[in-house]
């Protein structure tokens, strides 16, 4: 899907939305993994402190591994298959697009996620600083992947079924204008001739 290029400088409010979105996506993966780990410990914990400590280590490391897999799924595969939006991005009306407005490839979503190792430094402070310093509020992963996060406009039930355009992009053809008129011009029961007269329908 190709759209229009995003605006040069989104407002700083989008940074706050992105932080909330990142936290929600993290919780969407972490909370189920934590509940699963607690359930495994309660049901299968061995008796005795000597056996319990190695068991807890195995559970914790397994939970962290599953959490990484789940986070990759939510932040990489899911937006690639769902129009550039993670679940939390959909809730907060955000979307990842290329600088030309097109949809990023799976490789670019993977690049963005891998570079979270840099953006997440100091509890995410590095990414916030980069977003404040870049013109399009991009974190380092966005700069490398040539992507940008934009806000998605609201859509009422009366709007076109076509996906709504982003606020940071120019509206595409027929994005909100409804159906385009057909090439025929209704003239009642008569057609206009080139010589200025009228010819009745047969």
Strand content: 5-15%
Round the Cα radius of gyration to an integer and report it: 26 Å
Mean pLDDT across all amino acids: 79
Largest beta-sheet details: 2 strands, antiparallel
- N- to C-terminal distance: 47 Å
Low-confidence stretches: 156-194
Count of beta strands: 4
Report helical residue fraction.
40-55%
Reading side by side through the largest sheet, how are the strands ordered? Answer: 1-2
Structural class: mainly alpha
Order of helices and strands: HHHEHHHHEEE
Anisotropy-based shape: elongated
Return the domain count: 1
A few lines on this structure:
The protein has helices at 13-44, 49-81, 87-92, 106-114, 116-119, 125-133, 140-145; strands at 94-98, 147-151, 190-192, 198-200. It is mostly helical and 202 residues long.
Can you put this structure into words, describing what you see?
The chain is mainly α and 202 residues long. It has one domain. Helices cover 49% and strands 8% of the residues. It is built from seven helices and four strands. The strands form two sheets. The chain has a two-stranded antiparallel sheet with strand order 1-2. It has a two-stranded antiparallel ribbon with strand order 3-4. Strand 3 and strand 4 form a beta hairpin. Helix 1 packs antiparallel against helix 2 and helix 2 crosses helix 4. The protein is elongated and about 60 Å long.
């Amino acid at each position: 899907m190709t759209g229009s290029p995003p605006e040069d400088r989104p407002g700083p409010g989008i940074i706050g939305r992105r932080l909330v979105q990142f936290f929600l996506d993290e919780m969407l993966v972490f909370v189920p993994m934590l509940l699963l780990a607690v359930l495994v410990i309660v049901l299968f914990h061995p008796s005795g402190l000597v056996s319990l400590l190695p068991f807890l280590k195995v559970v914790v490391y397994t939970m962290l591994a599953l959490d990484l897999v789940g986070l990759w799924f939510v932040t990489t595969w899911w937006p690639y298959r769902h129009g550039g939006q993670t679940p939390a991005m959909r809730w907060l009306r955000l979307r990842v697009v290329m600088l030309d407005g097109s949809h990023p490839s799976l490789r670019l979503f993977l690049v963005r996620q891998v570079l979270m190792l840099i953006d997440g430094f100091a509890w995410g402070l590095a990414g916030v600083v980069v977003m404040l310093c870049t013109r399009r509020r991009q974190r380092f992963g966005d700069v490398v992947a040539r992507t940008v996060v934009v806000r998605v406009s609201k859509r009422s039930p009366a709007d076109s079924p076509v996906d709504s355009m982003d606020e940071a992009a120019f509206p595409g053809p027929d994005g909100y204008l409804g159906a385009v008129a057909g090439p025929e011009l209704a003239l009642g029961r008569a057609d206009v001739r080139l010589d200025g007269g009228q010819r009745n329908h047969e």
